[in-house]
From TrEMBL:
Pathway in which this enzyme or protein is active: Cofactor biosynthesis; coenzyme A biosynthesis; CoA from (R)-pantothenate: step 3/5; Cofactor biosynthesis; coenzyme A biosynthesis; CoA from (R)-pantothenate: step 2/5
Cofactor(s) listed in the protein's UniProt record: FMN; Mg(2+)
Organism name: Aliikangiella marina
Lineage: Bacteria, Pseudomonadati, Pseudomonadota, Gammaproteobacteria, Oceanospirillales
Details of cofactor binding: Binds 1 FMN per subunit.
Domain DNA/pantothenate metabolism flavoprotein C-terminal: 6-214
Protein name from the UniProt record: Coenzyme A biosynthesis bifunctional protein CoaBC
Catalytic reaction list: (R)-4'-phosphopantothenate + L-cysteine + CTP = N-[(R)-4-phosphopantothenoyl]-L-cysteine + CMP + diphosphate + H(+); N-[(R)-4-phosphopantothenoyl]-L-cysteine + H(+) = (R)-4'-phosphopantetheine + CO2
Keywords: Decarboxylase, Flavoprotein, FMN, Ligase, Lyase, Magnesium, Metal-binding, Multifunctional enzyme
Binding residue positions for CTP: G93, C94, A95, D99, K109, P125, D126, I127, L128, F143, K157, K161
Amino acid sequence: ECEKKLQNKVVMITAGPTVEAIDPVRYISNHSSGKMGYALARAAQLEGAEVRLVSGPVSLRDPHGVTTVRVTSAKQMFDYVKSNIADVDVFIGCAAVADYTPVEVASQKIKKNDDEMTLKLKRNPDILAWVGEQQATRFVVGFAAESQSLKEFALKKLQKKKLDLICANDISQQGLGFNSDNNQLLLLYRDGQEKLLDIATKDALAADIMQEIGEHLKQRS
Ligand code: PMT
């Protein structure tokens, strides 16, 4: 009954925001606190997994027994993932990776004047899509934070990024999603199965997700 579901498995999790520098004092980022991703890391560790957590800048403490690597930008997060993914059995992309980054990072603080100012941005690499492209037996999980058409947009991401599972959260609901302690997740599987994990703490949801992943790994083997 108290058998651990992820014994001997290597689980890699991305968490938090990424921070994209504009100049030495300014940046582009988002409101991710890292709470969901860190909860997943703790839950995977409790199920016996070897956990690698790669995190953007957050104010949370490193989870006990988890290899935690702190990065700043999407590029740094991607570099860590590429270098450390070979033996990973389960990959979970929970980070709110900045989609765009400045084309150039000014080496000195940009001086203001009275004109409008235009910032030129380029696309960041899509870390999760890259993992999905790898021909591996790995179980690949994404998250989707949507403010409308939750299921439709999440299903598009599931297919486009070649995922096994996507966990969709509706960020238009007060007190859920970014920076809150609670969340609600709609789990959508590649094979069409779906499951609603109703409002609960991120820790409780993370534990449920590890049970789900454990079951699917068992069915595969
Ligand atoms: O950190 P918290 O405050 O606890 O908040 C948790 C959360 C709301 C950030 C989390 O639950 C969540 O939903 N994370 C995904 C945020 C999101 O909107 O992702 P996305 O729709 O931009 O991307 C979809 C998926 O692709 C995600 O798994 C993301 O990690 C991944 N991605 C996206 C862009 C990119 N360049 N690289 C990626 O890996």
